[in-house]
Write a structure and sequence with these properties.
The protein folds into three domains: 64 residues, MutS, DNA mismatch repair protein, domain I, CATH 3.40.1170.60; 98 residues, Orthogonal Bundle (DNA polymerase, domain 1), CATH 1.10.150.20; 105 residues, DNA polymerase, Y-family, little finger domain (Dna Ligase, domain 1). It has 14 helices and eleven strands. The radius of gyration is 22 Å and the shape is globular. Its EC number is 2.7.7.7.
């Protein structure tokens, strides 16, 4: 979807249309962060995850609104219903993005490009929103293609074009290559796919570890990952940013207690349990640390999670630190029964996590 949260706001509130709109915390607060920005705001350099104060400096006329996640979830469900008219193999990545495998053409349309056009038109006609689509033979290339001509774009990269496409692609655009890895690659003289393609698989592994094997395949446009309609959650977490920095241990204990209650509610709703508890700390200078504790068996009980979070807090040296954000999460998940059923052939069971 194109600038999803902001587009929903502009659709629902005509007074925001055509104006620089920022969805996120207000710039007056300490921890305001941009969730997304309209294309009118992006012209000023405003981007997701940017502090709201920075966004306001870039565009003093920007309008700031709090996110309405219930509204976005409702629209996301409507989008998924449109998808299901064309395929049953849908892998959601977030509220506004998904992979669709259209190998089985439910409506007999005849081509993936035409299916993408039908979906985009249905979203426009029924929801008054725009989407951008990428069409190709695998997930990685389709994902890159979907970002190429936003907003309201449709990009097809066929088999004969993939090799040349991958060679000209900047390394920071490659799946699994973050800022740190991209900087490392560039320091070694690798700036594009063509540069990386000069390396053998052994040389890739020598320079980048186990992921070097994956990079060796991706740079050649090879991605054998299937679209997974019943993907299990790998982790679940909650967090809060505070208007005033937390400095006292008793304050942090109180806030951790509230976070654990929210986390337990979400875990039980999703029927999930995990073996690793993690507490996240973001300080006033925006540095982040995480500390974890693992258990031999999966848990989702409030008292055990709370005890683990408090132990982590006690072991973490926070002397002289001002905490602006706290988070608690559970990972190393136990496979839910629903996913086990699907794996054994019970295709009528779905696990939905929002």
């Amino acid at each position: 979807m194109d600038a999803f949260y902001a587009s929903v706001e502009q659709r629902d509130f005509p007074e925001y249309r055509g104006k620089p709109l920022v969805v996120g915390g207000p710039p007056e607060g300490r921890g305001g962060v941009v969730a997304t920005a309209s294309y009118e705001a992006r012209k000023y350099g405003i981007r997701s995850a940017m502090p709201s104060r920075t966004a306001q400096r870039l565009c003093p006329a920007a309008i700031f609104v709090y996110p309405r996640f219930d509204a976005y979830k409702a629209v996301s469900r409507q989008i998924r219903e449109i998808f299901r008219r064309y395929t049953d193999i849908i892998e959601p990545l977030s509220l506004d993005e998904a992979y669709l495998d259209v190998t089985h053409d439910k409506q007999g349309i005849g081509s993936a490009i035409s299916i993408a056009k039908h979906i985009k038109q249905a979203i426009r006609d029924e929801l008054q929103l725009t989407a951008s689509a990428g069409v190709s033979v695998n997930k990685f290339v389709a994902k890159i293609a979907s970002d190429m001509n936003k907003p309201d774009g449709l990009t097809f990269i066929g088999p004969s074009k993939i090799e040349a496409f991958m060679e000209q692609l900047p390394v920071e655009k490659f799946f699994g290559v973050g800022k740190v890895t991209a900087a490392k690659m560039k320091s070694m003289g690798f700036h594009t796919g063509a540069d990386l393609k000069e390396l053998s698989e052994a040389a890739m592994v020598q320079r980048f570890g186990k992921t070097g094997k994956f990079y060796y395949q991706i740079v050649r446009g090879i991605d054998r990952r299937e679209v997974q309609p019943h993907r299990a959650a790998k982790s679940l977490s909650v967090e809060d940013t505070y208007q005033e920095d937390l400095t006292m241990p008793e304050e942090m204990r109180g806030e951790l207690g509230k976070l654990v209650v929210r986390l337990v509610s979400r875990l039980r709703k999703a029927q999930l349990r995990g073996r690793t508890v993690t507490v996240k700390f973001k300080f006033h200078d925006f540095t982040i640390i995480t500390r974890s504790q693992s258990f031999p068996e999966p848990i989702n009980e409030e008292q055990r999670l709370l005890h683990a979070a408090m132990q982590i807090l006690e072991r973490t040296d926070l002397s002289g630190k001002r905490v602006r954000l706290l988070g608690v999460g559970v990972s190393n998940m136990e496979t839910p029964a629903a996913v086990q059923d699907i794996a054994s052939g019970a295709r009528d069971v779905q696990l939905k996590l929002f």
